[in-house]
NAD(P)/FAD-dependent oxidoreductase
Amino acid sequence: MTDDVRILVVGAGIAGITVTQLLRRQGRHPVLIERSRVSETLTDDDHAGYMLALMPMVDPVFDDLGVREHYRENSVAIDRYAFHAHTGETLREDRLGRLLARYGEYRGIARGELIAVLSTGTCPVSFDSSLVSLAAADFAAEPAADSVPRPTRVEVRTGVHSEDNHLHSAEFDLVIIADGLGSHSRRLVPGGSSESSVDTAWGGWVAWAPADADTDQVDELWGEGFFLGAYPVKGRTGIFLGAPDPREPLGAKRFVTEVRSKLTTLSPRIDAALTAVAEAEDPYFWSLRDFRSAQWATGSTVLLGDAAAGFLPMAGIGAGMSMESARMLAASLESTSPARLPAALARFEAVQRPRVEQAQSTSRQLARLMFYLPGALAGLRGLIVKLVSVKTALAPIIDLLKHPARPEEVRSPEI
């Protein structure tokens, strides 16, 4: 209650925890709420387990939080990328880590481990809590240029997973909505509707395989009607087996049998990956769709991370952009006041949104090649990938790394 700007952060995922921890290092005390019942829901494999490859734009975040070494200890360096033809043989290998090294580190980490790293030290979270409403009157009219925006009255329900739940009312100067791709909260604010959304009509099962000797190599295999990816993290390998949505009822085990029948070459890692999916107990099926909001910021609310722009995993950039955006948002709020919040949020959106949408568009372009080419043309897709280097495919992402986000662009001119 004594903070100069009272901030509520909705969602204790990657974006929400990152911005909260950065704001706390500024001396503020944002309230962080999370719908999940307990912390294990965010960090254990049964609920949150999937793998991430983080590009170098995340390095400054870990530096700002003082957890770079903790991050390195709980992740693995990735250098090699291997692309396999639809029959299983290796078509090409690229030194992706070496390509990105001039900009920083490229590392694999489990999502739960990343959240634990970002939460190093003290990270208070109000679990089992969700945002119910925002006062509609706050958005009724544009404030005068010299007026101080009114606080936003919110209603938060605690104990959402129990019958003994309670509704609380409070006032905040700023509400940061960071509750993920399937956000329940963005519908409460102007601009929270979708500007565009891509549904690939594909999804996939997530599982874990034992670590092997190739801890620095990512493998991807685009087959006829399936996709298989293997992504190393510390002590194990994350597996994603993709399928068109109509194939989900078949179940992971039977779909693995179908995939094996289409492969003529089976490397030890691909064999282990398929075995891991087949033996996983009730593996999670992840629908592959994205989201782009029509607007990020109002005078007293802002969308962040997947709530603003949720990514397809094609370019492996979504989590990194969420962390970068969180850092830029925290910078825009540094030394601000309630009166300067609208200008601060406008600067943040003007600078960061084009970067995020450039990365998101790259993911969408790769999705067109991978998901929308008929299965019968899987061999043609392999030929295209064989001829087009990773450097060419990821050129827009590399451009973002060449021209990193600069917090000074969003900080108040008075700082």
The two ends are 24 Å apart (CA to CA). Residues 136-141 have pLDDT under 50 and may be disordered. The first strand starts at residue 7 and ends at 10. The chain has two domains: 7-39+125-197+290-364, 47-117+199-289+373-397.
